[in-house]
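Before relying on records like the one below, remember that each one covers exactly one chain. Contacts with other chains, cofactors or solvent are not represented anywhere in the record.
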Amino acid sequence: MTGEEKPVEEILENASDEFDASEARDEANASETDVEALKVQLEQAQDEAAKMKDQYVRAEAEMANLRRRVEKDVENAHKFGQEKLTKELLAVADNLERAIVSTEGENVDVNAIKEGVEMTLKGLQDVFSKFSIEAIDPQGEPFDPQLHQAMSMVENPEVEPNTVIAVMQKGYQLHGRLVRPAMVMVSKGGAPAAKIDETA
């Protein structure tokens, strides 16, 4: 072995050291590249997060405004929802006031007052019809506890049991929903009257 020749172990060791150093340099370069890439990704994520936060804040503000508008609309609907009905009823009130004024003279014409009240009632019934308010007048119909309120029961052999024989106060429905039941008298039926034998 000459003085310039190196043992194999030393050559391998030097090659390994050079490889390790080269690998470390590559790793350092790669980690610098990774750090730069991560910084770019972080900036992008922060920009995206800022955009999302801005959109969220805007959506929250829009929802708050919408909630306030809806609350105001509901409040106005409660306050002024019956405005149309009120306007229609004003004509009825005017007619009733005229009927009262017409009774205050010396020459009171009862027939004219009666006609005026009948016209007023007709006007009120027209208003009811416009607003889907239906009267319940069950005279002669079977008793219906969903629509009628029995005030008394009367024995009446001439009609079927549980038949409305008198209406003391009409009931009313609004769009099919019961507002007030009809107050009625209902037949019990009772025992039929004994027949008299007239041939005896």
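The longest helix spans residues 8-80.
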